[in-house]
Each structure stands twice: as C-alpha cells, then as structure tokens.
Amino acid sequence: MYTLPKLPYDYNALEPFVDEATMRLHHGKHHQAYCDKLNATLEKYPDLMTNPAEELLVKLNDLPEEIRVGVRNFGGGYVNHNFFWQILNIPKENNLLDQPGPVGGLAKKIDEQFGSFADFKEQLSDRAIGLFGSGWAWLVFDKGKLAITTTINQDSPLSLGQISLLTIDVWEHAYYLKYQNRRAEYVEAIWSVFNWFKIAENYDLALKS
Ligand code: MN
After folding, report:
1. Which of 41, 114, 129, 173 could connect to 70 by a Cys-Cys bridge, CB 3.0–4.6 Å?
2. What's the CA-to-centroid distance between 167 and ligand 1, angstroms?
C-alpha cells in the first residue's frame, strides 16, 4: 500500500505565494486521490507494491498491460506530487540565501547551459505558461545535461529515462482558487518558494547516478 506522505511544512507555510486553501485541497484531496487510485490499480498485483512508486514509472513499459495506463496516470500523480512538495519550501528559509536561486554545482551548470539564472527562469516559465491543458514543467537531468521539458497529464520524466530536479505543477487545481485563470501570475509566484538546497541536492545525486 502506498500512503500519502505528510507535507514537509504546514499548509499555510507557502503563503502568500501558494495559499493555504489550495494546499489543503491539493495535498489532502487531489494527491490523496492519486494515492488511493494507484493502490486500487495495483490491487491484483500486491508484489508490485513493494517497489518504490518511482520504480513503477521507470519500468512502465514492462508492467502488465492492464495496469499500465492506471500506473501512468495515478502512479504519475502520486509520484509527481511527492516530488513537488519536496522541492518547495517556506519563503523564510529561502531567504537564508542572499539572493534566492540555484546553489552549488547546479548554479554553475545553469549558467553554463542557459547563460544566466534569469534566462533559465524565463525559459522554464515560458514553457510552464505555454503548456496547453494540464501537466507539468520540469528541469530534468538527461544524458549528462540539464533540460527544460514539459509532460502532459501526470506523465513523469522518469518514464523517459530522465531524472527530475525541479518542477511546476500547472494543473488548474494547483492555482485556480487564488489565481483563477492567471497561470502566469502563479508561475511567477512559485519561484519565491523553491527549495534551492533540495533542488541542488537532486542535481548532485543525479550526477552520481
Ligand atoms: Mn497537482
């Protein structure tokens, strides 16, 4: 059985950038539903549930065909949200940095590949804002390089052999209560609550994989 992980901060911790009501609904209802539906999908395959859910997405194409779509959608939703909560952080802690933004080896790599943090931020934001419908914008590590990508629905970069470093959930449920149809405002706000220490750690781990 997969279970809903507790948030690593309080529901109101990301205010005013991400509001408490959205966080309660997003984690308590949407994420919980993905978790429940993943468990239901795997009911006849209890052995598979002993794997970390991430592994199921990495090996999606090897799974029995009758559960592949369910794992892709609900397993993706479960894992994507687990990951998303981890790379966000309370603004106060981000302000420990002189200038909130990438740290460590990741900061250098971003400058090297994208020119500057500002250029990187613009490119990722544009992809997030421009994604049609529901999905996610990502910074991934792929074949030794950083890449900005998007996935639709709850598809995971893990199923494409990529390693997730950072993501923005651009499903309407992630922002509609506070920002209504103003996705661009939500995308700008999310930059204030990224956990750059965690994201840099993701990069360091990706280098070792
Ligand atoms: Mn979501």
Report:
1. 41
2. 11
